[in-house]
Write a structure and sequence with these properties.
The complex is a heterotrimer of chains A (about 525), B (about 500) and C (about 475).
Chain A: H1 2-17, H2 23-29, H3 38-42, E1 48-50, E2 57-59, H4 65-84, H5 91-109, H6 113-131, H7 138-164, H8 169-180, H9 192-198, H10 201-222, H11 230-252, H12 257-281, H13 289-310, H14 314-328, H15 334-342, H16 350-377, H17 385-409, H18 420-436, H19 440-444, H20 454-470, H21 485-495, H22 497-517
Chain B: H1 3-23, H2 30-56, E1 62-68, E2 71-76, H3 79-102, H4 109-128, H5 132-150, H6 156-187, H7 207-224, H8 233-236, H9 242-269, H10 271-277, H11 279-300, H12 304-324, H13 328-359, H14 370-373, H15 375-388, H16 395-409, H17 413-439, H18 459-477, H19 485-496
Helix pairs in contact in B: 1-2, 1-4, 2-3, 3-4, 3-9, 3-13, 3-18, 4-5, 4-9, 5-6, 5-9, 6-7, 7-9, 9-10, 9-12, 9-13, 11-12, 11-17, 12-13, 12-17, 13-15, 13-16, 13-18, 13-19, 15-17, 15-18, 16-17, 16-18
Chain C: H1 3-23, H2 31-51, E1 59-62, E2 73-76, H3 78-105, H4 107-110, H5 114-129, H6 133-151, H7 157-188, H8 193-196, H9 202-215, H10 225-231, H11 234-259, H12 264-286, H13 291-307, H14 309-312, H15 318-350, H16 361-364, H17 366-380, H18 386-400, H19 404-427, H20 440-458, H21 461-470
Antiparallel strand pairs in C: 1-2
Helix pairs in contact in C: 1-2, 1-5, 2-3, 3-5, 3-11, 3-15, 3-20, 5-6, 5-11, 6-7, 6-11, 7-9, 7-10, 9-11, 10-11, 10-13, 11-13, 11-15, 12-13, 12-19, 13-15, 13-19, 15-17, 15-18, 15-20, 15-21, 17-19, 17-20, 18-19, 18-20
């Protein structure tokens, strides 16, 4: 019951929005609505089954999912607060906001395949409405929607295979890409940066924070069911590491701060992908908690950073700096703890794990560089009062939550505190920065359009659509035109008396012959 | 005449008798006509409800009227029959309400409602048919009684559409008749089998003939079921008034074709034999092609009703695909889609009819901003459109879920790819309509066709789509509950594939 | 069954119309009443015959007490009774129609119609009851003369042309037929069909068949039918197309199924001619500009169907094929009569029968329109009509005997019939005024005939079973 109650407030808000004039009240209530999920996250009941709903809806929370739910609820609360103070919100966008929230919460709680699909599809499709806040955002939102629809179909196929009891590499690939599209898995990552850039801070926060946490939850809930898949593992590992580095590199070349953060997401989620790959490689069952913690830390931190892009001023900049350090894995930060725990993964495939662990610190360095660029971009942002409160709240949550979650999930958290191991990547980054500083103007001129591949993919998509729509305009075939003239002439001959006489005679002969022979 | 026998006849008569009486009612007798129509529709729904309860508890209802020696007109209420009958009965009631509102002030209403009732009678006759003779009998009566409805408006375009309709449909029935009589010549008179096929006892030497008969039968049924390339009559028939397009060409006629195919595969040949012959493979390929082709053509249409017609062509083949991918899950998916697609499609046509009738809007490009003027109509359209895109928790998702599982179970992953691609195409041709209706500002003033009501349009035009949209939501959301069509279809599948 | 009553019953169908026909010219008024009374009597007699029928044999009457091989013998088996009854129903309805419709539409004809009609009816009934080939010749001649009289009733140039052609072809046919009769007598020493069964020489059969084909307008000797039937007044055309031409078929049935049952190749030839009739007749019907000509060509096509029974009535399928053919003849008769009567109404209402200008019919004469549609349903062989039931049986026989080619012909013919029927129906929509408002009662009579053709599909089971059992 408590689980279902978490979903109730946003759905009620949707219903209320149908009545005219309720918009302001709903907007005012928006920051409070997600908090209904907190009781479920903190004191979860056993899984419940609503057999009459859909195809038998099962709601429940694994231990690793509880902190994620709590984090999601807090994230949405702060983002809602920012939304409220961020200027006028149209009814469709508010509607989409509530539906996305409902989808996000539900996706974290849904245990059965159709139910998860329901909520995740709701989440990703309604997110379109959150992104498209004005005309300028339409292009980016449309690209996002097209890829999201495609990814939903992959996800559906993968879930169907699981429901049928046929886990295997096909299901694994489908789930990986279907959910991974939201996490910037190459090559489906290209809608994300333009979408982050096009929307406002609050929208980007839920997009970057909530969506990613839900997608990772989906991975953790369903991918383990495919069992040990060595080839898939290697692919995931490679793709993840590639994303980690390429994402950071592409992010360095961005001018828009939110697009940069999108690339940062791509990069960080690459680490999760790699971790998932490690888990798939070995025979040991997947331990989801480290990945969940990482996702939690990343989600909150990224969301806070995104909220910060909407605010400005020296205080905010300080907060952003702290968050950046956390993201890069500075000692004692949540990021450091999460990464440290990740290193314990991969017991089943020690060779791969060795390699992965070698690369991990360098991703921290890359992140540090990226965040430095980010802070540079944010240095001149103007103060916007209404946004500072939400930003502060979320920052505090982001910094504290990983610790709290760790206390809940890990038997001995203090093991994970490492000093030097987390510091040296930052120093490497500082060094690179120092070396590159004289060249900063020249480097500063390098550009990469947000979304990189989108410059090719979007026109291609439009071309295909237009081609399909214009292909062949058939008209129904003309019904057979009977040639009317030939039969009439013949008939006239037959009809005449001479004709009849001839036919009579011939027919008698014919019958006589046939009867004689037959 | 026992109760067991009287019930099927009563179900048939509840629309046949009012129809025959309405023919003789003069045009101005509006109230009498409406009263007759509604009474017949309500009685039919009540009778069907009774039959559902009865069959659920194991009763049988059957009646045989001797017609040709050895081939009686056999009406029987088995679970599959009841599925189709209940769909027809409920939708007939709603469409009658809609038609009364739609045709207010139009000429020739007695003729219209007379033939309308005949059509529904023919449809339930098809549903209740217990042997091929009866099925064909009512199948042809359906053809004959739908023609006057297609040409109702008597314009040159309507008459042409009527000619195209007849050309396709009568050729299909000639082929069907030949195949049916041929089968009886091989197998003697038989009824539809309860479990397995009626002719699956024939020896292997008849196999080539059986395959030919199978293909001819599904080809003959396939004309009404709008399988490519026999689908062209459906978009042409959209010139008919909206109630006709809604009930008949989106539900009754096309579903009769799909139903015929289902009966052929399950109760005449039996799923196993049909599969062994290879007929289901051909059928699945044609269905798959139709699904994609129909969706692509829908993309090209600017006229809203034509877009919906091609969408019907595509969606109907979901049912055929489900039937031809032999296996319990695919069967469940195909048969439940029979119900779900009917309800979703009728909602779309009701909404399209409202837009045309109230504001003279026929093309997609004219729909900008109409959501503000007619929010409930557009809301119903939106719900149904999302259902067609197989978005959970709507009805379309449930059918697609089972069809997909069935495709995987039957080792035909290509079918799953076809279904998913079709969902994407559905989004491509429905989302623009939804987007235009809600998110674009309107272009100019509306051409108000009807006198203004307090509601956005005539109440009898508004109520049916809202109800059916609600059903789309309910049938998906509560699909697992005991009263849903899904549960009933599971019953049917359990009978067909006894373990 | 006591002898006197039996002979009365057998004699009545011939005597009543004959008597009335002789009286009618003497009457000044009340001609139609006399005709109708006689007609009612015939219907009653036919019904009684059906009721008292002996399922295993047939009732016989030796006219004048003289028995064969010298005297005339009349025989009423199930086939004869079926044709008697259906002809009676059709003729009575047509007569009623004429009584109601003609005084208003064509007053000059009103009085002149009855005598030819009654003579025609009497000859027809005598034909059905005849049991020997010479009798059949006589009745055929009488029938032809009465029919020609009906065609020439209107007196117009076209009618006279058509009648002349009819007469000449019919006479040529009769001559050929008579030659065949002579050959038969020479070979077997008897004229009686049952006695001569199995011994009919091929040449005789050929001659008789061709003669009958000429009289019955069976392809390719059909050319005289359309102009003649189109030129006759509506009641006349109705009878001509519905029952008169069927008489030839009736005799062919007797000849080929009872008298000469083993001639299989010949049957194929007959069916080939039937196929030609179906295709050619339908094709020409499509191209006609006048409604009555279209209906006449439709008759040519439908008669072709009937010829298909011959190759199909073999082995265990002879019962269903026979029953199907007979039922087809009955249903077609009802439907064709309805169509011609409706065409008469159309002619009266519009002043012409050009198909391209039929607009307004659906609105102002909906009953007539519906009659045409329902009759068309029977012609197309669609449920719920008698035509469908008959088609089902014939198709079953075709597939059952492995002769699927004839099945194709049946199916194709149905489709072609659909094309020309819906051509007419489609032309009647639209809004236009009629020249005259037709009377309602005649329209309902035509409608009743068309409905009867539909009912023939619903109540068919018992008659069909009996026909199957009675099949030769």
């Amino acid at each position: 019951m408590i689980l279902a109650l978490a979903l109730l407030p946003p759905l009620l808000a949707v219903a209320l929005l149908a009545a005219p004039g309720m918009q302001r009240r709903v907007l005012t209530a928006t920051p409070w609505l997600p908090l209904a999920a907190l009781p479920a996250a903190l004191a979860p009941p056993p899984p419940m089954e609503l057999e009459f709903l859909l195809l038998g809806l099962r709601l429940g929370l694994e231990p690793w999912a509880q902190p994620l739910l709590a984090a999601t609820a807090l994230l949405w609360a702060c983002a809602g607060w920012a939304l409220r103070h961020g200027g006028p919100v149209s009814v469709p966008r508010l509607l989409a906001w509530q539906l996305t929230l409902a989808g996000n919460l539900g996706a974290l709680m849904a245990l059965d395949e159709p139910g998860f699909y329901l909520f995740f599809a709701l989440l990703s499709i309604a997110a379109y409405g959150v992104v498209v806040r004005n005309r300028a955002a339409r292009g980016a939102a449309r690209t996002y929607l097209a890829v999201a629809l495609f990814a939903e179909l992959l996800l559906l196929a993968g879930l169907m295979l699981l429901a049928l009891g046929r886990p295997g590499p096909t299901a694994g690939v489908l789930l990986l890409f279907g959910l991974g599209a939201k996490l910037g898995m190459l090559p489906l990552h290209f809608p994300l940066p333009p979408a982050y850039a096009a929307t406002d801070a609050a929208g980007a926060a839920v997009f970057g924070g909530g969506l990613t946490m839900a997608a990772v939850a989906g991975w953790l809930r369903f991918v383990p069911q495919v069992g040990t898949q060595p080839e898939l593992a290697i692919y995931a590992l490679a793709a993840g590491l590639a994303a980690a580095f390429l994402g950071a590199a592409a992010g360095l070349l961005q001018r828009d701060s939110r697009a940069l953060l999108a690339y940062s997401t791509i990069s960080q989620m690459g680490i999760v992908t790699a971790g998932l790959g490690l888990a798939l490689a070995g025979p040991a069952p997947l331990v989801a908690a480290p990945l969940a913690l990482f996702a939690l830390h990343h989600g909150l931190t990224k969301a806070a950073l995104l909220l910060g892009t909407g605010a400005g001023g020296p205080l905010v900049l300080t907060g952003l700096a702290l968050l950046s350090l956390a993201l890069a894995g500075a000692p004692l930060s949540g990021g450091a703890l999460a990464k440290a725990w990740l290193e314990s993964m991969g017991e089943g495939a020690p060779a791969l794990a060795e390699m992965a662990h070698g690369w991990l610190p360098f991703t921290s360095a890359a992140t540090a560089l990226l965040m430095a660029r980010f802070l540079w971009l944010m240095r001149g942002a103007a103060t916007r009062s209404g946004q500072r409160g939400p930003f502060a709240a979320l920052t505090v949550t982001a910094l504290a939550a990983p610790w709290l979650a760790l206390l809940y999930l890990h038997p001995q958290p203090t093991e994970l505190v490492k000093g030097w191991a987390t510091l040296w990547p930052l120093l490497v980054a500082a060094g690179v920065l120092a070396l590159a500083w004289p060249l900063r103007t020249r480097i500063g001129r390098w550009r990469l359009p947000p979304g990189d591949l989108v410059v090719v993919a979007a026109p291609l998509g439009r071309l295909l659509y237009r081609a399909a729509a214009a292909w062949g305009s058939g008209r129904p075939p003309r019904l057979l035109q009977l040639s009317r003239f030939a039969p009439r002439a013949l008939e006239r001959h037959l009809r005449g008396l001479p004709g009849t006489g001839v036919v009579l005679f011939a027919l008698v002969l014919l019958f006589a012959v046939v009867l004689a022979l037959g | 005449m026992t109760l067991q026998g009287a019930l099927p006849l009563a179900i048939l008569g509840s629309s046949l008798l009012p129809g025959l009486i309405i023919f003789f009612l003069a045009e101005p007798h509006r109230r009498g006509r409406t009263w007759l129509n509604m009474a017949g529709a309500v009685i039919k729904v009540l009778l069907v409800a009774g039959a559902l309860l009865g069959v659920y508890h194991g009763a049988t209802f059957e009646v045989a009227v001797p017609l040709v020696p050895d081939y009686p007109l056999l009406l029987r209420l088995d679970p599959l029959a009841l599925l189709f009958v209940s769909l027809s009965a409920v939708l007939w009631l709603l469409t009658t309400v809609y038609a009364v509102g739609y045709l207010e002030g139009s000429p020739n209403r007695s003729r219209f409602f007379g033939f309308f009732s005949l059509c529904v009678s023919a449809t339930v006759g098809i549903a209740m048919a217990g042997n091929l003779f009866t099925l064909f009998f009512f199948y042809e009566v359906l053809t004959l009684s739908t023609y006057p409805l297609v040409v109702h408006r008597e314009t040159e375009q309507s008459l042409r559409a009527g000619r195209i309709y007849l050309a396709y449909v009568m050729t299909g029935s000639a082929v069907l008749l030949g195949a049916v009589v041929w089968l009886h010549a091989l197998a003697g008179p038989f009824e539809f089998a309860v479990s397995g096929g009626a002719v699956d006892h024939l020896d292997a030497e008849h196999r080539p003939a059986l395959l030919a008969i199978f293909l001819l039968m599904v080809g003959g049924f396939g004309v009404k079921a709008a399988l490519v390339p026999m689908h062209r009559w459906l978009p042409a028939a959209m010139v008919a008034p909206a109630p006709v397009s809604a009930l008949l060409h989106a539900v009754a006629v096309v579903k009769a074709g799909a139903f015929g195919i289902a009966r052929t595969v399950y109760d005449v040949f039996g799923a196993e034999l049909a599969h062994d012959l290879g007929g289901t493979t051909v059928l699945a390929a044609v269905a798959g092609f139709t699904i994609i082709y129909g969706s692509l053509r829908a993309l090209q249409q600017d006229d809203l009703k034509r877009r919906l017609a091609y969408s019907t062509v595509s969606q109907l083949s979901y049912i055929v695909l489900g039937v031809s991918l032999v296996g319990p899950l695919a069967t469940i998916g195909g048969l439940v889609h029979l119900v779900h697609q009917g309800i979703m499609k009728i909602t779309l046509f009701f909404a399209a009819g409202n837009l045309a009738e109230t504001l003279h809007l026929h093309k997609v490009s004219e729909l900008d901003g109409v959501g503000r003027r007619m929010p409930w109509t557009m809301a119903a359209f939106t719900v149904a459109a999302f259902g067609m895109m197989s978005a959970p928790p709507l009805a379309g998702f449930v059918s697609e879920w089972f069809l997909g599982l069935g495709a995987l179970e039957g080792d035909a992953p290509w079918a799953l790819a076809v279904l998913l691609a079709s969902s994407l195409l559905n989004a491509a041709y429905f989302l623009p309509v939804v987007y235009r209706g809600w998110f674009r500002p309107r272009r100019g003033p509306w051409h108000e066709n009807l006198p203004r009501h307090r509601l956005e349009t005539h109440p009898w035009l508004l109520l049916p789509p809202v109800i059916t949209a609600g059903m789309v939501i309910a049938l998906g959301l509560f699909a697992a509950s005991v009263w849903s069509p899904l549960t009933w279809v599971r019953l049917i599948a359990a009978q067909e594939y006894p373990l | 069954m006591s002898g006197a009553v039996a002979s009365w019953l057998l004699a009545a169908p011939v005597a009543l119309p004959l008597g009335a026909g002789l009286i009618v010219p003497l009457l000044r008024r009340g001609r139609s009443l006399a005709a109708l009374a006689a007609g009612a009597g015939v219907v009653a007699a036919a019904l009684l015959l059906l009721a008292v029928r002996d399922p295993d044999g047939a009732m016989e009457l030796a006219v004048g007490g003289w028995s064969p091989p010298l005297g005339i013998r009349w025989r009423a088996d199930l086939l004869a009774i079926t044709f008697l009854l259906s002809t009676a129903v059709i003729a009575l309805t047509v007569a009623l129609f004429a009584a109601l419709h003609l005084p208003r539409a064509e007053p000059a004809l009103a009085g002149r119609l009855w005598a030819p009609l009654l003579f025609l009816w009497s000859a027809l009934n005598a034909l059905y009851l005849s049991a020997d080939v010479f009798n059949l010749y006589v009745t055929l001649e009488l029938l032809t003369l009465a029919a020609v009289m009906l065609v020439t009733l209107e007196g117009e140039r076209q009618a006279l042309d058509g009648a002349m052609r009819y007469l000449l072809v019919a006479l040529a046919g009769s001559t050929v037929y008579l030659l065949g009769v002579a050959l038969l007598y020479h070979a077997t020493g008897t004229l009686d069909l049952t006695l001569a069964a199995g011994a009919v020489p091929g040449a005789a059969l050929a001659l008789m068949t061709v003669g009958l084909m000429a009289k019955g307008a069976l392809f390719p000797l059909h050319g005289w039918l359309p102009p003649a039937h189109a030129a006759a007044p509506a009641p006349g055309s109705a009878l001509l197309s519905a029952v008169v031409v069927k008489s030839a078929f009736y005799i062919l049935l007797r000849l080929w199924l009872e008298a000469a049952p083993d001639e299989h190749a010949g049957r194929m030839l007959l069916a080939a001619c039937g196929t030609g009739a179906v295709l050619w007749g339908s094709l020409l019907a499509l191209t006609q500009k006048r409604l009555k000509l279209l209906v006449a060509y439709s008759t040519v096509a439908q008669l072709g169907y009937l010829l298909l029974v011959f190759p199909l009535a073999v082995g265990s399928w002879s019962g269903p094929a026979y029953a199907g053919a007979v039922w087809l003849a009955v249903s077609h008769g009802l439907a064709k009569a309805a169509m011609f009567l409706a065409a008469g109404t159309v002619m009266h209402a519009l002043g012409h029968d050009r198909i391209a200008e039929l607009r307004g019919l659906a609105h102002h004469a909906p009953v007539t329109m519906l009659t045409l549609a329902l009759a068309g349903v029977t012609l197309m062989g669609l449920p719920p009509s008698g035509g469908f039931v008959a088609k089902w049986l014939l198709l079953s026989a075709a597939f059952g005997t492995g002769q699927w080619f004839w099945a194709l012909v049946l199916l194709a013919g149905g489709l072609l019939a659909a094309v020309y029927t819906f051509r007419v129906i489609g032309a009647g929509f639209g809004e236009a005024a009629l020249a005259r408002v037709p009377r309602r009662a005649p329209q309902w009579l035509a409608f009743a005939l068309a409905t009867a053709a539909l009912l023939a599909g619903v109540v068919a089971e018992l008659p069909l079973r009996q026909l199957q059992e009675a099949a030769p």
